[in-house]
């Protein structure tokens, strides 16, 4: 790791935009490493980071709903465009945070932007976090939610025939796993999946891991810490539900149209792009976009929300939602 730091220092990294470097200088000065943070402290640090910037929450109507499904009690947030009428298509948002961090407040601005730009409603799942709830608990709760919304969406002004899955990072990982499970179990039909900087493999033998494994917000050390908290089952780590890049074409070809968004200076970049290529080879309608100069979670982080690249990321995702759910 010391060699990585010497070979690819942040201040000399031409893959980072000027504004991203400024953010990293402030963030890295906080020394929020996996080695010196408890899970509780990490959750608070992430919440504080997201709350540190003023962002726009206008143009939406929000409600909370507690459901019982599949033996689980799950809280949902429903987000609609302001003054919307009729039965709306919707996306189910599965949040990131390495399976251990994150909640609706920390992802609210991102979800709001997608709702306002696309005119589509959103359902945010407050799944149980690790390490309190280990794999596959969160996936089971997501499956229970999808089953519930497919049967009850109409009661809330939502159209269950027009559903997308959207997830960021570990949430994107679970979106893929949920789509695969749905195929295997003949579950809810998904029209589109949007995968923002997804985790598609538990392995570290990627060039982007080597180049960007330190000091770029998501580090190799943090990623290992997150996997360790999610599960200690080696067999599970190598399964298609955690490492979907290992899935074969016969299964992948059944996945819905997909948008994959990756950041240039992100350790997960290469595995996200690899998954996109595998989907293409399997015959799936897939678009993979790399945002140069950006780091992991650039589209989620409120301190970066005003960057041109972050705005473009929202515009691209919203356009896909409109394309596949409205036309």
From TrEMBL:
Q: Which GO terms describe its molecular function?
A: hydrolase activity
Query: Keywords for this entry?
Result: Hydrolase
Tell me which SUPFAM superfamilies the record gives. Answer: alpha/beta-Hydrolases
Q: Where is the Alpha/beta hydrolase fold-3 domain?
A: 91-298
Residues annotated as coiled-coil are none
User: Where are its TM segments located?
Assistant: none
- Record's Pfam families? Abhydrolase_3 (PF07859)
Can you tell me which family this protein belongs to? Belongs to the 'GDXG' lipolytic enzyme family.
Protein name, entry field: Alpha/beta hydrolase
């Amino acid at each position: 790791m010391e060699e990585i730091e010497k070979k690819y220092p942040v201040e000399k990294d031409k893959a980072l935009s000027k504004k991203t470097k400024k953010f990293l200088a402030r963030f890295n000065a906080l020394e929020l490493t996996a080695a010196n943070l408890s899970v509780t402290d990490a959750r608070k640090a992430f919440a504080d980071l997201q709350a540190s910037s003023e962002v726009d929450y206008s143009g939406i109507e929000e409600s909370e709903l507690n459901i019982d499904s599949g033996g689980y009690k799950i809280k949902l947030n429903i987000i609609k465009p302001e003054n919307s009428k009729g039965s709306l298509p919707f996306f189910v948002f599965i949040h990131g945070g390495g399976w251990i961090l994150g909640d609706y407040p920390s992802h609210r601005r991102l979800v709001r932007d997608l709702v306002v730009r696309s005119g589509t409603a959103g359902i945010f799942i407050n799944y149980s976090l690790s390490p309190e709830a280990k794999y596959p608990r969160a996936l089971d709760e997501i499956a229970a939610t999808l089953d519930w919304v497919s049967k009850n969406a109409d009661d809330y002004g939502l159209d269950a025939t027009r559903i997308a899955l959207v997830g960021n990072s570990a949430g994107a990982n679970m979106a893929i796993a949920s789509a695969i499970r749905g195929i295997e179990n003949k579950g809810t039909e998904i029209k589109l999946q949007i995968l923002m900087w997804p985790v598609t493999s538990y392995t570290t033998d990627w060039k982007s891991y080597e180049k960007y494994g330190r000091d770029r917000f998501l580090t190799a050390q943090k990623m290992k810490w997150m996997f360790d908290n999610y599960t200690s089952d080696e067999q599970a780590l190598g399964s298609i539900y955690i490492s979907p890049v290992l899935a074969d074409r016969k299964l992948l070809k059944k996945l819905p149209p997909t948008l994959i968004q990756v950041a240039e200076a992100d350790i997960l970049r290469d595995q996200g792009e690899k998954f996109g290529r595998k989907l293409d080879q399997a015959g799936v309608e897939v678009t993979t976009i790399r945002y140069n100069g950006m780091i992991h979670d650039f589209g989620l982080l409120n301190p970066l929300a005003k960057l041109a690249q972050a705005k473009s990321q929202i515009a691209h995702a919203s356009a896909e939602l409109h394309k596949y759910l409205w036309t």
